[in-house]
Amino acid sequence: MFDTHAHLNLEPLGKEPPEEIVRRAKEQGVTKIINIGIDIASSQQSVALAAQIPEVYAAVGIHPQEAGSAYNDAQIFRELERLLGQKKVVALGEVGLDYYRNPVAPSVQKQVLEWQLRLALENDKPLIVHNRDADEDVYAILKYYKCAKVVFHCYGRDREFTRKLLDLGWLVSFTGNITFPKNRQGQDAVIYTPLDSIMIETDCPFMAPVPHRGQTNEPAFVRLVAEKIAELKGVDWEQVEQATDANARQFFAIGRD
Predict the structure, then answer these.
(1) pLDDT tens, 137-170?
(2) What is the biggest distance separating any 2 CA atoms in the chain, rounded to whole angstroms?
(3) At which positions is a divalent metal cation 1 bound (predicted)?
């Protein structure tokens, strides 16, 4: 299994030796972890950790909540471009738009996102997208730039929006919140989306699935996401594991060991 979206450097996970986190994940069948950057410092840490641990790969990027600090900062943009060229950096992310209680103005978020999209296209990197309360704007920008390899992480939108993403060949990734009983829309998105368009993630240390809700999330728990998808779709969880593994390998261009 892949955990396609983890934040191993963020507290409280960041206080623990990453080797221990990876060991527990491997015991649950997790073979690859994509460690995600949200700003320059965490992106640098992701690259360093990927160089240190064979099972870990890196994504680098500026999260929309961090866009204000990167706005019109040429030094940050140059460093991000340098990081994209490092070994085991498999995607740009997480990037996107967040209109939910975000003090960064939408216009600033959009400019930082567009700069990163151009960078991803120039370097042939797939995109890991954060979208919160910004469906139409983020969709329009990604479509305008003709982005081909896109995954919307921590997904849970309605069928109409999901269809728009699937029609462009984009993927969605589900996390532990699909195990929350009241998350009907997220569960319906699982049912609606075909397995060949799905990846799985933890978004750790956040979004711990039931029965660990409220605790610190970690990559070992991604199996619970796969099992919930299997339950909602009425298939064996091994089928979900195989499909999401194949999707992740193709999306991130990671071969088998």
Answers:
(1) 999 999 999 999 999 999 999 999 999 999 999 9
(2) 50
(3) 5, 7, 94, 203
Binding-site members for a divalent metal cation are 5, 7, 94, 130, 153, 203
Would the pLDDT of 14 be above 90?
Answer: no
Phi-psi region of 101 (alpha: psi -120 to 50; beta: other; left: phi over 0): left
Percent of the chain whose predicted confidence (pLDDT) is above 70: 100
Q: How open is the CA angle 101-128-105, to the nearest 5 degrees?
A: 30
Tokens 């019109």 identify what position? 72
The mean pLDDT value for 62-81 works out to: 95
DSSP secondary structure string, 85-121? TSTTEEEEEEEEEE-SS--S-HHHHHHHHHHHHHHHH
Which residues are registered as beta bridge partners of 151?
128, 171
Q: So where are the chain's domains?
A: 2-252
171 backbone dihedrals φ, ψ, rounded to 5°: -110, 165
Q: Can you say which residues are annotated as belonging to the binding site? A: 5, 7, 94, 130, 153, 203
Q: Residue written as tokens 């996970």?
A: 13
Structure tokens of 77? Answer: 């943009």
Class of domain 2-252: alpha beta
DSSP structure class, residue 159: H
DSSP conformation class of 178 = G
- Closest-CA residue to 62 (of 86, 29, 36): 36
User: Which 3 state secondary structure label does DSSP give 39?
Assistant: coil
